[in-house]
Design a protein that fits this description.
The complex is a heterodimer of chains A (about 290) and B (about 350).
Chain A: E1 6-7, E2 10-11, H1 22-49, H2 53-60, H3 63-96, H4 102-109, H5 111-114, H6 117-128, H7 133-140, H8 149-174, H9 177-185, H10 190-219, H11 222-228, H12 238-247, H13 251-281
Helix pairs in contact in A: 1-13, 2-13, 3-8, 3-10, 6-8, 6-11, 8-10, 8-11, 9-10, 10-13, 12-13
Chain B: E1 4-12, E2 22-31, E3 36-40, H1 47-55, E4 62-67, E5 70-71, E6 82-85, H2 97-106, H3 116-129, H4 145-158, E7 163-167, H5 175-192, E8 195-200, H6 203-209, E9 212-217, E10 220-225, H7 227-232, H8 237-242, E11 247-249, E12 264-267, E13 272-276, E14 284-294, E15 297-304, E16 309-315, E17 329-334, E18 338-340
Parallel strand pairs in B: 3-8, 3-9, 6-7, 7-8
Antiparallel strand pairs in B: 1-2, 1-4, 4-5, 9-10, 11-12, 12-18, 13-17, 14-15, 14-17, 15-16
Classes of the chains: A mainly alpha (about 290), B alpha+beta (about 350).
């Protein structure tokens, strides 16, 4: 959209282009966006505001709610970080190397997208439980995976991985190998080539993938609740707390918690968008 | 002493013996210091593979590559100190023009790295040389193709390379920019005296720009020599045909000067004399089938009395040219013919 278009004759909402139907397309886009995204959010905010501040704060900032936010956002952040590193690495391998089974591996990446989250949750809970295949190994080292915050983290890593891989992959494929060859011929070591040439080029895409993985992880419910154990104050995520409130018909409390998550997510997404723009603008540092 | 010496280099596609054609087949080539040498050939002839092998971007199965006399066959690309310009520039998109050119200097080990102030001076001097001083803080995306190519050149020169390798340097540019850049590169080469190898599939470019031309075909060097040598005395039929449309003609007495043999004979269109039938000139009779004006020349499609068709090129200021319209009967003779043993 070209709302920033400033022609000689002053500011105009839309600069005329050879491509017609701006009005129609813009109208449908705005109406669709409103119906799909804005109206439910407004309804949520109105519901949250339909109570005294004291009751809002009691629900939204109770110790149990604060613990849930900390777990939801904290585990989501850590999981997205792991996804960032692993995702870039996996995308790199898939783009740059030809090996038997590459197509299969490539198809597997999308599995967390396609799998019903409950199935993923049950599967992860089964292998991570103290008597499960992975859980046994961890238990031998005195670590319990399932029914702890660690379990939440594992589930979020699982569901977030495709986001980073799928955003980085096309950008990496677009980065000609000649660029790396040029760096080598100019005397750069492999390390310098990767850190100064490859990573800066894919940083904006990686940041986008990180943000998507993080956003998905914050809102994730289905896969987490089976593995988390859902102990209040310890392994209870914020979306579950909302469901718990709803089951007790405490709609105001549920809306209050939801409003806090909404505000926090919005702030984080804005920060992430700003960082992404900076990465795109910023050249290589010295 | 040679700047680059390539000795019996063989490279196979897929890296296995007996697996399809060799990309390079026993290639030997000696590049003299300060020379501007063109590697000319059709696509798939191995010219780019050879250039990349010299740079260390391709491994070779056998043979030796020497740079300034030193064996560089197994030296990694990063340590060869070779300036390389890619066809599609391969600039670092997220860096400014300045940072692109400075990259090689900043990548040096700490002990050899010039201080930042000196790097800035050298980068700006290079950018001035390629006439892009004002563009130092731009991103490559904001430049035209010709400008990007000059940035790539400045970047390659920044490391003070022993030799400069250019892979189809003008391939992605339009005709006008190409001609300008060609002339400019020739001048630059004369000023710097740097040994330069460039790959091209455009024979005009190679003949106009290079001191010597090496013609490659299916992984072999067919001939190497000055532009005049390879054009006037082609060593093989391939060279004759690749450099300026030579046509195969039957060895007929009367059409060729000298004895008619069973040899393969190639004649360039501009080496054919076309005279009016009534003039009594030597040669064989032919009919003009088609006539087209192109630049200063007139192209004639001729049919000899035995049905052979061939193309001739005559100067337009030739008074007779206008009368050589389709349907006219003429007498034709080849002034120069390239004969090859059958």
């Amino acid at each position: 959209m070209s709302a920033t278009a400033a022609s000689a004759s002053g500011w105009r909402f839309h600069r005329p282009t050879a491509v017609p139907a701006f009005g129609t397309a813009f109208g449908i886009a705005v109406a669709g966006l409103s119906a799909i995204v804005l109206i439910p959010i407004i309804a949520l905010v109105l519901k949250g505001a339909d109570q005294t501040w004291a009751s809002f704060a009691a629900a939204a900032f109770s110790p149990r709610a604060l613990a849930a936010y900390r777990l939801s956002f904290g585990a989501a952040f850590l999981a997205a970080l792991v996804n960032l590193v692993m995702g870039v690495l996996i995308a790199w391998v898939l783009v740059r190397y030809r090996f038997p089974g590459r197509r299969l591996a490539d198809a597997l990446i999308d599995l967390p997208f396609a799998l019903p989250t409950a199935v993923a949750g049950v599967a992860l809970a089964t292998i991570c439980a103290p008597n499960g295949s992975v859980g046994q190994v961890a238990a031998a080292f005195g670590i319990q995976l399932a029914f702890t915050p660690v379990g939440v983290f594992i589930a979020l890593v699982f569901i977030g991985l495709p986001f980073v891989v799928r955003t980085v992959q096309p950008v990496l494929a677009d980065l000609e190998p000649e660029v790396e060859e040029a760096a080598a011929l100019l005397g750069a070591s492999r390390w310098r080539t990767v850190t100064r040439v490859v990573l800066p080029a894919i940083a904006p895409a990686a940041m986008t993938g990180f943000t998507l993985a993080f956003a998905r992880a914050v809102g994730e419910y289905g896969s987490v609740i089976f593995i988390a154990g859902n102990k209040p104050m310890i392994s209870e995520i914020a979306p579950l707390l909302i469901v718990v409130q709803l089951e007790q018909y405490a709609y105001g409390a549920a809306a209050a918690i939801a409003c806090v998550m909404l505000a926090a997510s919005l702030v984080l997404l804005v920060i992430s968008a700003a960082m992404q723009r900076r990465l795109e603008r910023e050249g290589a540092d010295r | 002493m040679t700047a680059i010496s390539i000795e019996h280099v063989t490279k196979l596609y897929g890296g296995r013996v007996g697996n399809a054609a060799a990309a390079l087949n026993d290639v030997s080539l000696a590049v003299r210091p300060g020379e501007l040498l063109a590697l000319l050939g059709p696509s798939g002839s191995g010219k780019t593979t050879l250039l990349r092998a010299i740079a260390g971007l391709e491994t070779i199965e056998s043979g030796r590559i020497r740079l300034d006399g030193e064996d560089a066959t197994t030296v990694p690309a990063r340590e060869r100190r070779i300036g390389f310009v890619f066809q599609h520039y391969a600039l670092f998109r997220h860096m400014t023009v300045f940072e692109n050119v400075a990259f090689g200097l900043r990548a040096r080990p700490r002990a050899l790295r010039p201080p930042e102030r000196e790097i800035a001076e050298r980068v700006m001097a290079l950018l001035e040389m390629v006439q892009l001083g004002a563009f130092a803080q731009r991103r490559p995306a904001a430049l035209s193709g010709g400008q990007r190519q000059r940035v790539a050149l400045a970047r390659a020169l920044a490391i003070e390379p022993r030799v400069l390798l250019l892979d189809e340097p003008f391939g992605a540019l339009d005709a006008k920019v190409r001609r300008d850049l060609r002339r400019w590169l020739r001048e630059l080469h004369e000023r710097l005296g740097l040994t330069t190898l460039f790959v091209t599939h455009d024979q005009e470019e190679a003949l106009e720009l290079a001191d010597r031309v090496a013609i490659l075909n299916t992984g072999r060097i067919e001939q190497i020599g000055t532009p005049a040598e390879v054009y006037d005395q082609p060593a093989t039929p391939f060279v004759a045909e690749f450099l300026g449309d030579a046509v195969r003609v039957p060895a007929r007495p009367g059409f060729l000067r000298g004895p008619a043999t069973e040899d393969l004979v190639l004649v360039r269109p501009h080496d054919i004399t076309v005279a009016e039938a009534s003039s009594g000139a030597p040669g064989v009779p032919a009919i003009v089938r088609r006539a087209v004006s192109r630049g200063g020349a007139r192209l004639l499609e001729l049919e000899l009395d035995d049905g052979t068709r061939l193309e001739a090129e005559v100067a337009r200021d030739d008074g007779a040219a206008d009368r050589l319209a389709p349907g006219a009967t003429v007498r034709v003779q080849a002034r120069v013919a390239h004969r090859f043993g059958a």
